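Posting for a labmate who doesn't have an account.
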Amino acid sequence: MANSTTPLTDTQIRRKAPQSKEYNLSDGGGLQLRIKPSGTKAWLFNYPRPSTRKRTNMKLGTYPSLSLADARKRREECKSLLESGIDPQEHKAEQSREQAEAGQNTFKRVTDKWFAIKVKKEGLTKDYAEDLYNSLANHVFPKLGNRPIQKITPLEVTDALEPLQEAGKLETLRRICQRLNMIMNFAVRKEFISVNRLHSIAEDFQTPPPKQHLPTINPSELPKLMQSIENASIKPVTRYLIRWQLHTMVRPAEAAGARWEEIDFEGKVWNIPGPRMKKKRDHAVPLSDQALGILEAIEPFSGHREFIFPGDIRPREHANNSTVNMALRRMGFKGKLVAHGFRSIGSTILHERAFSSDQIETALAHVDKNTTRAAYNRAQYLEQRRVMMQWWSDHIEEAATGMNPSKGKKHLKVVQG
């Protein structure tokens, strides 16, 4: 007949006194209580390890901090692991390692890893990268930066971002929610967390109003604009920069940062490298006679420098991206027109004159979602756009002088794609 073990009782355990040597009391099923000469009473689970079948002891805790009832629960948990072929000690060590890693993988640390990869992969501009990171540093890190990312809950995030909603900063709030979603998806891919619990966090906040279009004037007001530019009390470089942006239809930052090395005078093309473009793709701008004339006129001011439009205070750097906007405000166009609106004026007029939409969109460096067609457009539309851009410059010249352009290119046949 098999030997049976009489289960322990709390009274029995309390009354057991230490001896000169440690000894064990058995509760059955591998659960033992080791009583040491010091008086410490430690719970042990004795079991054969699945990998070697050699018996070993696993410490569960000390009595009375770990009661008899709780010790029995832990014994059953260990036995359940063993039935699944899992070593309880190895399982405990793995849990400890995961907890330690979770403590190290704070939201800020994971964000820093995500941010470094995003900047390198997408080639973010310095200004945009700083804006992106600072939005998190200012509004998320103070409350959640040191929290293990594994423990962050939607409620915590809602509480942290609520002040933005109360302040009416809904667009900032929308962007932060987007960034939080990207960070959590990154954390899932890197196995820092198992699921993104913030995927719909934006639904907890008000939706920002539709984005307002940047102010621009009616194309019929182009003559008034040209007259204002000519009569304005502004520096020559600023005047040339305004004309350059208007004739080339590029974005303000792309115009202000133009370099002499980007100009192909022989081919009459301005080649803007991808890192300087909003969509990070190389962009070629066919230069009209008037655009080349602007370069000729400004050459005495900056021909010896890197940038075509040097800064006023720091001439070794390019003009500020906001230079044209500031000049327009001084000319009386505050709230009516911004530099980016030049592109809208050009687009409207060129569409009205039946130029190809594909050519116009390519000229504006708008990225076609159809990558195959986008590649074709870049390869095929340069010469067609050359005719279009010359027509546009002639139209600007006519608006400025009130007469047909001297070179008569206004009547060139429109070349369709």
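Reply:
Got it, the structure tokens are right above this. The longest strand covers residues 55-63.
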